[in-house]
Amino acid sequence: MAGASGREDQRDGPPLVSLRGIVKRFGTLTANDHVDLDIRAGEIHALLGENGAGKSTLVKILFGLLQPNEGEIRWQGQPVTLANPEDAGRLGIGMVFQHFSLFDNLTVAENIAVALPKGEDMRSIAARIASVGERYGLALEPGRPVWTLSAGERQRIEIVRALLREPRLLILDEPTSVLTPQEADTLFVTLEKLAAGGCGLLYITHRLEEVKRLCSGATVMRAGKVVAACDPRQESVRRLASLMVGSEVMEVRAAAAHQLGPVRFELNKLSLAPDEIHGVALKGVDLAVRGGEIVGVAGVAGNGQAELFAAMSGESRAEKAGAVRIDGADAGRDDIDARRRRKAAFVPEERNGHAAAPRLTLSENVVLSRHATGGVARHGLVDASAAKAVAAEISRVFDVRKGRVDPPAGTLSGGNLQKFVVGREILREPGVLIVNQPTWGVDAGAAATIRQALIDLAARGAAVVVISQDLDEIFAIADRIAVIHDGHLSATYPAREIDREKIGLLMAGTAEERPHAA
Amino acid sequence: MDIWQAVLITVITAATPLLIAALGELVVERAGVLNLGIEGMMAVGAACGFAAATLSGSSALGVLAAIAAGVALSAVFALLTLGLATNQVATGLALTIVGLGLSGLIGAGFVGTSREAIPAIRIPGLTELPGVGRLLFGQDPFVYLSLALAIAVLWFLGRSRAGLTLRSIGENHTSAHWLGLPVMQVRLLAILFGGGCAGLAGAYLSLVYTPFWSPGMTAGRGWIALALVVFASWKPLRVLFGAYLFGGATVLQLHAQAASLGFPSQVMSAFPYVATIVALVIMSAGRRKAAAAPGSLGTSFVPDR
What we know:
Shape of chain B: globular
CATH class of chain B: Mainly Alpha
Number of domains of chain B: 1
Largest sheet of chain A: 7 strands, mixed
Largest sheet of chain B: none
Low-confidence stretches of chain A: 1-10, 512-518
Oligomer: heterodimer
Radius of gyration of chain A: 24 Å
Strand content of chain B: under 5%
Number of helices of chain A: 17
């Protein structure tokens, strides 16, 4: 690719930025333990690691948001102190955040203007947005309010905002997690242009294919420490994965061949106005899931997944009872408990605050979702010992690791709490299970346990719907795949017959043809 | 014609303290801080303003003292909510209680005293114009000041760089911090501005509207100012509209009471409050205007270290 030779030339001088022996502690937790990292000008450097490996902490230190307890930051060989993001900005360090740092009710131009240094001419901003947009292929409409934009467009704002400050080092935190495959391709072209222009890039991700494709250096972190520094182009994806996880990566086993049962969960022309101001309306959603199969719902975040889940679980009720059918019975007007009594179970996306109440103990959280279906509450009174027994059973079967017997849910790590909330529903042996983002932000081991449990549940005859933004996950476990875009659900396609490109087009809403197969 | 002019002038007089207090609170809330202490700050402003003016004999000193009292009380609020990250709702309510008590203490020696109201402006040749002269050119200085304040706030929020910074901080303080914007400083300044406005509004009550001090003379206007900001969807011009609507309803019910239409007087006294809230609710409903609420409103900001 262009600029590759130029990049090699710049390898001789001191690195653009060096981190040496960085230590950051939060209470008893050591988030960064003597971390070293070098980034050179013109290099795209990957920072790899699982959730909780300490990547975000390190990046916040490099951007002046956190102060290290020990260690040194050198900028072009000179020691520097980064007391706040302004210091980092002055040196030319820019950042594109994973959870966007945008202001929803401001326009695109205002979002960009507010981040520029004082004394910049506000009137020429639209022109400058256009010129940067043209140079890097990042088109934006300056007058639009941000909340009307898609995730991909929002990320473009973040990138243009960073580029307008002409950064010498650009940090990107999980930039492709909200993009369709095609949008990601466009982003990679932009990043390569930037690197060719001499900018250093620190690319944080856990997607290894991207790293191999884009990066010329990689630093792998695990549990706060650097475990390897390597050239990702020379390594296999498998080896990079095992460096990240620290052991061989578990893979899920496909279920043994089994017969599909009758349709157990059905949506018929389900339309629903959103509850929230910036929500998405569901438009005529049709779906039929048979016992014994997993249907994956792919899509870019914010295209109606939350609303679809709420409509399926009964948090939002349909207008017509027939719009949602569980085991052949109309359930559209049922509330969530009535649907649970029909042997349906639900795991929402947000573990802390939606799937579980973080300050309540695990056994109390058992009561929260099981009180309607018996066993833990009688005559309006909680049977605490029964609830504790259920919590213990869930913890045993799903290997939930915890410090105490019955701790508050919020004290569990993300992966362990997710195993708990998924396990709580699966151990009920539901006939229908609806899960939203089953493994979002959990470690690989927990993700594998959860995915295996979903596959096994379907093999026992349940109808399972998995809403996920992770295409790898959907391909790993789903029998059929549908894509949600702007509140429309596509037809379902057998997972073996649809490729990523086709899914990407559906995710972007650009696949025109209406398929007849279902 | 002159009757209408007289009525409109009383409408404006009733609206002005609300407008000033609400504009101050609007700026505070757009910075993401909810200060429920307006009523208390207004009361302290009214008491201090009247006391200072009576003791010094100077209305101007009275006004300055009122503003200073409002700023001082809001500084306490800022210290607690920004410095110690206390709950803004509880702190604001406490501020109202403290302010009402404090104003009674300060004003205790002045109950029953009365003084000349701050006079209206006279511009020879213009104020005497028939029909509109006194309406346009013969108001007291606060009226012009409050209108200028509305325009200034509108311009500041919509057009200036500092206003953009303030709105961003109110919208999402975490993002603003990440971008290197001075969250705490901007919020502090906004809170002090809001306190000054509330103090000024209090001075208007005790130095112009009814030129004497009596405990509880703010009569819930601080709360109406708060409601105005919310139902005006945090927009300065709508606050202006709401304040004048309230003023109009106040005057209307006074005339209705005078005409003895047979409604209990308590019902009539409640009318302006009800009418204003109903009108603004209707305006803000149906257009999904809740989106206008600043995203970080009422939440404390504590940066990581």
